[in-house]
Amino acid sequence: MTLTGRLAASAASTTRFTTNVSRAAARASVSAGVVGGGSGEGSAHHRSSAAGVGAGASVTRFTTSPTVAKQQRFMSGYAAGPGTTKIPSFADYTKDRSGDSSRAFTYFMLGASGAMVTAAAQSSVHGFLTNMAASADVLAMAKTEVDLASIPLGKTVTIKWRGKPVFVKHRTQEEIDDANSVNLKALPDPQEDSARVQQPEWMVVVGICTHLGCVPTTDSGDYGGWYCPCHGSHYDVSGRIRKGPAPLNMEVPEYVIEGDKLTIG
Ligand code: FES
């Protein structure tokens, strides 16, 4: 039996065996080759030439897999060793942006939001005040004019102003003197008569009792002014409380006297 073996150089990974033995012998040699190749390199592949076997001379080729070192070179393009691993940079993700343009953008958004909220609030308040404002007819009724020339001396008229009664009394000189001679210390709500009138002959007061809101009767009571029959309060000709449960003088409204025209409100 002749065995020709050619072992390729280390760069070649193919081991070729040529033999003239019979097919059985060749199989035996293949088995031996497989065992020999597998012991050092792992798996092995073989091919048999059909022509060679038929002619009595068979060629068996063993092709071995690359060595472990070569596999490593095939799997990676980098040489093994420290410092060869490339680590990606995360600098863009870890950058501190607190002091750059992001802060300006945050301030801009806050300012824009505040401006919009302010505009919305202003619009709402304006609409609310517009709806709540008094209408023209209500404003016209806010002031009441009275012709003083039509009120005789010593008489009192009652007019309606903003839904409330208002007494306008044309006082005599005797009544004026009587109002100014009162001892203020004896009054429940001390007040000078001169502080309650613009012109002494004209006394203007809201005709509502300061106790519980009844309307006093005119030119009556113990002091010649007004009397509240609800609980017995007496007011003098200046509208000041003199006797009874009422705690305060009757209210003097805002008014203006121009000639014979009295404008209340
Ligand atoms: S309401 Fe006038 S005295 Fe009571």
Could you explain how this protein is built, in words?
It is a single-pass membrane protein. With 265 residues, the protein is of the alpha+beta class. The protein folds into two domains: 3-74; 144-264, Rieske Iron-sulfur Protein (3-layer Sandwich). It is built from seven helices and 14 strands. The protein has helices at residues 23-41, 50-54, 68-75, 91-94, 101-132, 136-141, 173-180; strands at residues 3-7, 14-19, 44-48, 58-64, 144-147, 156-161, 164-170, 202-206, 217-218, 224-228, 233-236, 241-243, 255-258, 261-264. A four-stranded antiparallel beta sheet has the order 1-2-4-3. Strands 9-10-11-12 form a four-stranded antiparallel beta sheet, with no helix packed on it. It has a three-stranded antiparallel beta sheet with strand order 5-14-13, with no helix packed on it. The termini are far apart. Residues 1-22 and 28-57 have low confidence and may be disordered. Bound molecules: FE2/S2 (inorganic) cluster. FE2/S2 (inorganic) cluster is lined by residues 209, 211-212, 214, 228, 230-233, 244-246.
Describe the SSE topology.
Elements: E1 3-7, E2 14-19, H1 23-41, E3 44-48, H2 50-54, E4 58-64, H3 68-75, H4 91-94, H5 101-132, H6 136-141, E5 144-147, E6 156-161, E7 164-170, H7 173-180, E8 202-206, E9 217-218, E10 224-228, E11 233-236, E12 241-243, E13 255-258, E14 261-264
Antiparallel strand pairs: 1-2, 2-4, 3-4, 5-14, 6-7, 7-8, 9-10, 10-11, 11-12, 13-14
The structure holds FE2/S2 (inorganic) cluster.
